[in-house]
Design goal:
Two copies of one chain form a homodimer. The longest helix of chain A has 32 residues. Chain A has two domains: 54 residues, Arc Repressor Mutant, subunit A; 178 residues, no CATH class. The first copy, chain A, has 258 residues and is mainly alpha-helical. In chain A, helix 1 packs across helix 2 and helix 4 runs parallel beside helix 8. Chain A has eleven helices and no strands. Helix content of chain A is 77%, strand content 0%. At the A-B interface, helix 1, helix 7, helix 8, helix 9 and helix 10 of A face helix 1, helix 7, helix 8, helix 9 and helix 10 of B. Chain A binds a DNA duplex (30 and 30 nucleotides) through helix 2 and helix 3.
Chain lengths: 258, 258
DNA sequence: GTCAATTTTTGACTCCGCGTCAAAAAAGTC
DNA sequence: GACTTTTTTGACGCGGAGTCAAAAATTGAC
């Protein structure tokens, strides 16, 4: 049994190793460049061995996306627990989005690939479910802040939408802006010089527009964001570091030291 | 010279024909499925002939995207000319976005592909410029409505952002929601049942939040949108039809009739 | 420590698509 | 009709996907 688990451990270990090698290829050179042969040769295994872990490269992409989304979820969880009124907690999640995109850019980019239908459709239902579930968790985290705000009477949302649809708006504006920022051929040349700040202004306007208490001026909003940063940053870095330790376990052949 | 132009016409004609065949493959089965061999055999030409028109499939994708974005621009142009206060004109552009996504879904999906870096980087600078330019036009159309609103004193935008950055917020929320709607693995199951309406509520809140006159209730907003629909729809259909005539020109060997 | 059974790894193989290019076919010219 | 130019063709070389039988390694019974 210990033997069994050792084997399993080794297997899992190598699975992680494959992902570790695959990630920068996918992010830096795209799906095309991510070939099983290349992974194999780069890791000094034969192609067949890689196929023992993943039935095709699409599955590798989804596996990478699961890691990425779990990191996002962990950041959201932490952000939602910040001290303060519900509105500040929502803003903290917004801050987490910014952080994720800017400090975990590779993961942000990996996440994009699941929107590719070819990749999505080809991969296993099991991993699809992991992703759906993770997306569900993220929604859950945010919408429970909204629900609490409603309970507290910090916020009244329009009848026309549900709390989740309320969240969807913020999801869309953040997500949209980040995708555009990372891939729009001409944002700068079109006159959008500071997309992050622009989106903050829009989020502020939305929150005020919905009258989510406490109402804020731009100055207040920015200074609140400026407090959120330091409050979360160190935890965020810990979360990232833990995740990376989990993922990178490449040198520790788990007893040998020295 | 007539000969020359006839040749050119035929060439161009076939280029369009290739795109016509390629579009449904790209949209329905993805980039992988779009192969030069397949195009060739489907059109009953040899592979080399296709290569005379496009140096690789990436270029085909960009060519399709140019067509798509030109349609979008035409819709925006028409929408921006609607009769009414500046705010209604912006809402009309929002309506155009909805229309484009829902009624020109293939073009909407084609547009997405240019965000793929592999495809973007591989294609010719010339076509990249066409796309950048078209994106610039769209931004231009929207931001000139904003600028006019400012001039008219219908709107005062925050100092922190430029008119383009103001537009960027709306771009992001629309774009983001549409991408999520088309590709999020779990929108419905996560509780977002009516994404279009949700985004309308957010846009209303944004416009009111910025105090873009005339301020509206949800009822007024919806009834305004309900008027915009019929006002534009027939022109929109004309625009689409013209575009398709332009693009489909597959049966008219331009003098032979009967 | 040996050996047969089991598990894992390997890489040769087939298939398919990309992109090239010399040769064949067609169109144009006089 | 003969010669030139343009266009089309498809065989070819390359490289990656995914398979699978054979080789290697591991296991555990004795």
């Amino acid at each position: 049994m210990t033997q069994m688990t050792r084997k399993q451990r080794e297997m899992e270990q190598r699975t992680r190793e494959i992902l570790r090698v695959a990630r920068p290829i996918l992010v830096g050179e795209g799906f095309q460049a991510l070939s099983m042969e290349r992974l194999a040769s780069q890791m000094e295994y034969a192609k067949g061995t890689i196929y023992n872990h993943f039935p095709h490269k699409e599955e590798i992409v989804l596996a990478l996306a699961v890691e990425a989304m779990e990191l996002r979820r962990a950041l959201f969880e932490r952000a939602a627990r910040i001290d303060g009124p519900t509105r500040v907690r929502l803003m903290a999640i917004g801050y987490a989005c910014e952080f994720f995109t800017q400090s975990c850019t590779d993961d942000f980019l990996v996440e994009q690939w699941i929107r590719n239908n070819n990749i999505w459709d080809k991969s296993s239902e099991q991993r699809q479910n992991l992703i759906r579930q993770c997306e569900g968790c993220c929604m859950q985290i945010v919408s429970s802040v909204v629900r609490q705000a409603i309970e507290n009477r910090d916020l009244v949302i329009p009848e026309a939408i549900s709390p989740q649809e309320f969240v969807f708006g913020f999801w869309a504006i953040n997500y949209g802006s980040q995708i555009l920022t990372h891939s729009s051929p001409s944002l700068m040349s079109v006159g959008v010089l500071n997309p992050v700040q622009a989106i903050r202004v829009h989020c502020l306007t939305l929150l005020n527009g919905f009258q989510w208490a406490p109402m804020m001026s731009w100055q207040e909003y920015e200074s609140t964001m400026a407090q959120i940063g330091p409050a979360l940053e160190s935890d965020f870095h810990t979360i990232c570091a833990d995740r990376n330790k989990m993922i990178d376990r490449n040198s520790d052949r788990n007893m040998v030291s020295q």
